[in-house]
Design goal:
- It is a single chain.
- The chain folds into two domains: about 210 residues, DHBP synthase (Alpha-Beta Complex), CATH 3.90.870; about 90 residues, Threonylcarbamoyl-AMP synthase, C-terminal domain (Rossmann fold).
- It is globular.
- By secondary structure, the protein is α/β, with parallel strands linked by helices.
- Helix 1 runs antiparallel to helix 2 and helix 2 packs across helix 7.
- The structure holds threonylcarbamoyladenylate (TXA) and magnesium ion.
- The site of threonylcarbamoyladenylate has 29 residues, from strand 5 and strand 6.
């Protein structure tokens, strides 16, 4: 089978949209792993109904077995195959935001394999909007698990090259769909409790959700510690330090005086010592989100000792960015 999979991978290079979709579906049907572009981040996709393929996802990422995966679907019509007691609000949210950067946490159907949901009573479901991901899902005609296509705990990939560099030969096929338009993971809305709440802020803002829900959704605790809710996660290899914007220059000067090479990632240029380099991040929050992981991947490859950043405003997409930055910085404390 390995030979066939690598043949499929070779053939996928330089192909038309339809041929790429066909190759991806072929690899998935054979139980292989396909890195697929979505509008949020690249996902590591496998057939959700094939236990051996799901096990390969955990192995490739080095992800603990009790951490649940999001099942991706080609349309909201497939919800009932995976979830039960689906509240009316789920259909309203699906109608408003699918395909798109929204994941719904619902009560799982009893036949959903434990391996997918890590033994939880809930299941996470989403319909992505990237044309390639959607076309593969619709051609595959069944659910695909797809966690972010990165080693457990590390930066999420927003370019095909990020996946190639991180997971190399652990993936049978990497589909290159260009840069992910949103650049930050989907918003997870928990609909398994009485009141809908945000289990993970992401590419769909609470403000946008409020327009459909009729109230501003609050953050909610998940029952068990799952990857995105771990205190330390989404981390670059280089140490990340968060500082207030007004303290960035002084902090960079202090670190440089200790002999450290520092990158300061910020929307505004600043006066920095020789050993420090300013890296521009867009001020506009959706552009910031789009550039976020790519910029971190790029600076992480350079010989810096410290990355210095400030939290953006916490409204709109800023709430997801703050969440990722705080968890990434926690990895170094
Ligand atoms: O944008 C996204 O959501 C991307 C793209 C590829 O779709 N996927 C993604 O998957 O971010 P992953 O596995 O990296 O993060 C999924 C998050 C994790 O924090 C996981 O714990 C949570 O969703 N999750 C999945 N199923 C769950 C469940 N049944 N109950 C609670 N949390 C769940
Ligand atoms: Mg992830």
């Amino acid at each position: 089978m390995c030979e066939t999979l690598s043949e499929a991978a070779k053939k996928a290079a330089e192909k038309s949209f339809e041929e790429v979709v066909e190759s991806a579906v072929r690899v998935l049907r054979q139980g292989g792993l396909v890195a697929l572009p979505t509008e949020t981040v690249y996902g590591l996709a496998a057939d959700a109904k094939n236990p051996a393929a799901v096990a390969k996802v955990f192995a490739a990422k080095g992800r603990p077995g009790n951490h649940p995966l999001i099942v991706h679907l080609g349309s909201a019509a497939e919800l009932e195959e995976w979830a039960q007691n689906i509240p009316e609000v789920a259909w309203k949210l699906a109608e408003a935001f699918w395909p798109g950067p929204l994941t719904l946490l619902l009560c799982r159907k009893p036949q959903v394999p434990d391996a997918i949901v890590g033994g939880q009573p809930t299941i996470a479901l989403r319909v992505p909007s990237h044309p390639l991901a959607l076309a593969v899902l619709q051609a595959f005609q069944s659910g695909l698990v797809a966690p972010s296509a990165n080693t457990f705990g590390r930066l999420s990939p927003t370019l095909a090259q990020h996946v190639q560099q991180d997971l190399q030969n652990k993936v049978d096929l990497v589909v290159d769909g260009g840069p992910c338009s949103i650049g930050i993971e989907s918003t997870i809305v928990d609909l398994s409790q009485n009141t809908p709440g945000i289990a993970r802020p992401g590419g769909l803002s609470a403000e946008a959700l409020a327009k459909v829900l009729g109230f501003f959704p609050q953050p909610c605790q998940r029952a068990t510690a799952t990857p995105g809710s771990l205190r330390a996660h989404y981390a670059p290899k280089t140490q990340l330090i968060l500082e207030k914007p007004e303290a960035l220059e002084a902090c960079a000067a202090q670190l440089c005086a200790q002999g450290k090479r520092v990158a300061v990632l910020h929307p505004h240029k600043m006066a920095l010592p020789e050993n420090a380099q300013w890296v521009c991040l867009p001020k506009d929050l959706s552009q910031f989100a789009h550039a976020f992981y790519s910029t971190l991947h790029a600076v992480d490859k350079q010989p810096f000792d410290v990355l210095l950043m400030s939290l953006p405003e916490a409204d709109g997409l800023g709430s997801a960015l703050c969440d990722r930055l705080v968890r990434a910085a926690n990895a170094f404390q």
